[in-house]
Amino acid sequence: MIKKETFQFLKDLMANNDRDWFQENKAKYEEARQNVEEFADEILIEIKKIDSSIPPEFSGKKSMMRIYRDVRFSKNKLPYKNNFGIGISSTGKGGDNPGYYIQIQPGESFVAGGYWMPQADHLKAIRQEIDYNTQDFLKIIESKEFVAHFGGLNQEDKLKTTPKGYDAEHEYIELLRLKSFTVFEKLNDNVLNSSKAVETIVESLKMINPLTVFLKQAIGNN
């Protein structure tokens, strides 16, 4: 589970996002980070049973996103993120590949997965796979359990025009207009503070897995 002290550290960081405060509270940061690493290790034990593409040696420590922000090209100059991120895929925590993501943030925690903003050749391959095997894709994203959990695929990243090579009257043109293929489910703080936290997240990851399998097959990474 995620300890209440971890959430409290993040709340305090949100109110005191500067280097002096962070250095003075470095011990609390290390304790919170350790808690999230151990939490990620528990999740990885279970998800590796489902997704064999995740490297056996991939650990909670390796899955952790940096808390330090890259402010070089950002108007937001706050030095630290106000969350802990856990990234899981066959290529590690990042990379251009389908996978899973868990964010720990007071009031804004969530579990997500799929493929966010794939590179051009991957996007082309995914659209082609959806076009060729539409019913297989629909079976995943329109299943009752999937829709109940996630409400369907996120629609934010989408072309306003028709992708090259497809007819505007294509029956599934709205799917083909997508530029990302992801799902999202908000996590309640109380759930993450409970003994059911890992079980709850793993249940969601199990439902995301068929989507990631389809996407990996589309780009030839299976």
From TrEMBL:
Matches recorded under InterPro entries: CHP02453, UCP028451
Source lineage: Bacteria, Pseudomonadati, Bacteroidota, Sphingobacteriia, Sphingobacteriales
Species assigned in the record: Pedobacter psychrophilus
Protein name: TIGR02453 family protein
Pfam family, one: DUF2461
